[in-house]
Design brief:
This protein is of the alpha/beta class and 107 residues long. The chain has helices spanning 6-19, 34-49, 63-71, 87-94, and strands at residues 25-29, 54-58, 75-77, 98-100. The chain has a two-stranded parallel sheet.
Length: 107
């Protein structure tokens, strides 16, 4: 999960939500290590302060649910430190959703 940048997402949410009252965030994906578990727990703490503006899902998001989330988003953020071949960012692009990510490998 460190590779995927979940810590960057948690820091961004903690910084952005108090400053931008119109922002809503949906954060999801499977947790694969202790670092990821810590970050999901941190995001859930932040969600307690912003229950109507932050949704956190610990697990795979697929099928129609993923497609609906992507199509309903203004943008998708993928802060991966390394990504051999990002498929989710390609899916976002195919659905017309702006993808934001670092200059890292396959993104």
């Amino acid at each position: 999960c460190h590779m995927k940048g979940v810590d960057i997402i948690a820091m961004m949410a903690a910084h952005l939500l108090p400053r931008c009252p119109n922002v809503q965030l949906v954060i999801g994906g499977p947790v694969s290590d202790v670092f990821g578990r810590y970050m999901i727990d941190r995001l859930k703490q932040i969600r307690e302060q912003y229950p109507d503006r932050l949704a956190v899902k610990d697990g795979f998001i697929g099928g129609r649910e993923r497609q609906t989330l992507m199509m309903g988003s203004d943008f998708c953020i993928f802060p991966s430190r390394f990504e051999p071949c990002g498929l989710v960012d390609l899916e976002c692009g195919a659905l017309g959703t702006l993808t934001i990510g670092p200059l890292a490998g396959g993104i």
